Amino acid sequence: MPTTASITRDTNLCISLAARPSNIGTRFHNFLYDELGLDYLYKAFAPTDLPGAISGVRALGIRGCAVSMPYKEDVIPLVEELDASAAAIHSVNTIVNTDGHLRAYNTDYLAVTEVLTSHQVPTDGDFAVLGSGGMAKAVVAALRDRGFRSGHVIARDETAGHTLAEQYGFRSRTQIGDLRPPLIINATPIGMTGGPTADDLPFDPDVVTSADTVFDVVAFPATTPLITLADKLGKNTISGAEVIALQAAEQFLLYTGIRPTRDQVQRASAFSRS
Questions:
Q1: Count of domains for the chain
Q2: Per residue in 123-140, pLDDT tens?
């Protein structure tokens, strides 16, 4: 990361946009800039005017922009081009600015696919994904492409839940009801630090008890109420902290053209939470 003395007009700026930004992405990217001696700087923002913020990315020559909840769909009409990774699921988490041309990507999908593989989650059972927003779309697409053939999208918005489930060949409900699938995934902000539901569980305890694998996409805190309960019950758990590190590494590659090593990603992730 450039020091105050070394920051110049040529320093590349990357940013993130989130309703409730944390320091995780900022510390992750700046750690790797420093590690690799890159003339880049990363800063997090909570925009009050999303179109204005995206116009600023373009007008100010900001190289890269990470996009978090709840803006992953709202930014789509504000960019010039969607990469196939974003177009396929109509959700964006990364924008790359090349001479004023904004191209949007989705690295969440790649990260979710990798954690499902690394945790050896069986694909022959059912699942329940809670949520129907941008992150839920990345999760459901990854589940389908990993080989899952049976599952439910659980969403209060009946239309959005049905549309998402139908797109990938699954079913939908507005409540989990009597479903007790072996894989449950929270793809909502429930449990996120700083939010109104920071201390809440997205699933009833008996649903967690019945599951084999519990996956929470919420990355801050690293151990959410859902993951805490699942750990106590001895479940196979996947945290949002794992996902955010993997998707951030893909973002880093898009911004800089350099892929950090697995060791560098692990150390950057540890530093981001220290």
A1: 2
A2: 999 999 999 998 999 999
What's the pLDDT band for 4 if we cut at 50, 70, 90?
low
Report the amino acid identity of residue 243: V
| Torsion, CA 16, CA 29, CA 230, CA 136, rounded to 10 | 40
User: Which pLDDT score is estimated for 126?
Assistant: 97
Interatomic CA distance for residues 38 and 208, integer angstroms: 44
Q: Which residues are catalytic?
A: 72
Token digits of residue 90: 């109509």
Cis ω on the peptide bond leading into residue 189 (within 30° of 0)? no
Report if residue 2 sits inside a domain: no
pLDDT band at 2 (very low <50, low <70, confident <90, very high): low
C-beta separation of 18 from 69 below 8 A: yes
d(CA 69, CA 83): 19
Q: Are the beta carbons of 179 and 126 closer than 8 angstroms?
A: yes
Categorize the per-residue pLDDT at 194 as very low, low, confident or very high, splitting at 50, 70 and 90: confident
129 and 96 co-located in one domain: no
The answer to whether residue 7 is domain-embedded is no
Domain interval for residue 256: 12-106+242-272
Q: Within its chain, how far is the Cα of 204 from the centroid?
A: 23
Q: Are the C-beta atoms of residues 79 and 219 closer than 8 Å to each other?
A: no
User: How many angstroms separate the Cα of 190 from the Cα of each of 83, 149, 186?
Assistant: 29, 26, 8
200-225 per-position pLDDT tens digit: 999 999 999 999 999 999 988 889 99
Omega prior to 2 cis, within 30 of 0: no
Say what the pTM is: 0.81
8-state DSSP, 76: G
Alpha helices in 152-273 (DSSP H): 158-167, 205-210, 225-232, 240-256, 262-272
Q: How far apart are CA 174 and CA 157, in angstroms?
A: 7
